[in-house]
TrEMBL record:
InterPro entries found in the cross-reference section: AAA+_ATPase, ABC_transporter-like_ATP-bd, ABC_transporter-like_CS, ABC_transporter_ATP-bind, P-loop_NTPase
Recorded superkingdom: Bacteria
Organism from which the protein derives: Sorangium cellulosum (strain So ce56)
Domain ABC transporter: 27-256
Gene3D superfamilies listed in its UniProt record: P-loop containing nucleotide triphosphate hydrolases
Pfam families tied to this protein: ABC_tran
Name of this protein: ABC transporter ATP-binding protein
Keywords, in A-Z order: ATP-binding, Nucleotide-binding, Transport
Residue intervals passing through the bilayer: none
């Protein structure tokens, strides 16, 4: 396939995805509570969280360990049912997982016996797409891995494996992309490059993205809004708008607004983390 053909196919896919995103991708959580365990020994993972995410927004979910970030993502994905409240996507109640809400995890979930190409094509094949492998090639090109289509996961670096995972998620052309610390296991340089690549993809297609992270800088660099979760109780602490101009490059970190946001979020996370620390110290 020539580069011109790849570019044309990607442009067409981008147009389809953009149209889908304009028509959908809205997420609404209403008074969502999640508890684990049995009566008398329950742990509250989320408490009465209400949140509205508009189509095409990039939202980062930030907070200390144990505040329910991944639980919030799992509820949106349909992996976890709330004990109370509801989650709706484009007005429809979420009751189970859907390929239209793909998740990219911190540790890649690629099939080790499949090549990169076949991993990306897998979801398309399950959906009955007769041209699955050809479309998968387009999405590998989108993440810069055309030359690695026939490589197996063990032959790829950590960053490449994550790019294959992103390509697989994008291949079904979803309006929503859910990401659970997808770059957390990467080295600092690879992580920075992956952040920039993800932003480039989002700028092009404008998926609704919900991105869980522990990293304050990552949250500000990527997101339109940062949702801060707290502990004791585990719930929504604050929503912070990121008023840093787009498109963003690494130089955005020099913006005074960026630096002020970092200090604000650092203070919030420090305050929430201290609650856990103080509680552990009191218990001992």
């Amino acid at each position: 396939m020539t580069q011109a053909a790849i570019d044309g196919a990607l442009a067409a896919a981008g147009e389809r995805a953009a149209l889908a995103n304009r028509a959908g991708g809205a997420i609404e959580l209403t008074e969502v509570s999640v508890r684990f365990g049995k009566a008398g020994r329950e742990v509250t993972a989320l408490q009465r969280v209400s949140l509205t995410i508009a189509p095409g927004q990039f939202v980062a979910v930030l907070g200390p360990s144990g505040c329910g970030k991944s639980t919030l993502l799992n509820v949106i994905a349909g992996f976890e049912r709330p004990r109370a409240g509801s989650v709706r996507v484009d007005g429809e109640l979420v009751t189970e997982p859907s390929p239209r809400r793909p998740v990219v995890f911190q540790q890649h979930s690629l099939f080790p016996w499949m090549t990169a190409l076949d991993n990306v094509a897998f979801g398309l094949r399950m959906a009955g797409d007769a041209a699955a492998r050809e479309r998968a090639r387009h999405y590998l090109a989108l993440v810069g891995l055309s030359d690695f289509a026939e490589h197996y996961p063990e032959q790829l670096s950590g960053g490449m494996q994550q790019r294959v995972g992103i390509a697989r998620a994008l291949a079904v052309e979803p309006a929503i992309l859910l990401m659970d610390e997808p770059f957390g296991a990467l080295d600092a340089q690879t992580r920075a490059l992956m952040q920039e690549q993800l932003l480039g993809l989002w700028e092009r297609w404008r998926h609704t993205v919900v991105f869980v992270t522990h990293d304050i800088d990552e949250a500000i660099f990527l997101a339109d809004r940062v949702v801060v979760l707290g502990v004791k109780p585990s719930g929504l602490r604050r929503i912070v708008d990121v008023d840093v101009p787009r498109p963003r490059s690494p130089r955005a970190r020099l913006d005074p607004t960026y630096q002020a946001l970092y200090q604000e979020l650092f203070g919030l996370i420090r305050e929430e983390s201290s609650k856990t620390f103080d509680g552990s110290r009191a218990a001992s």
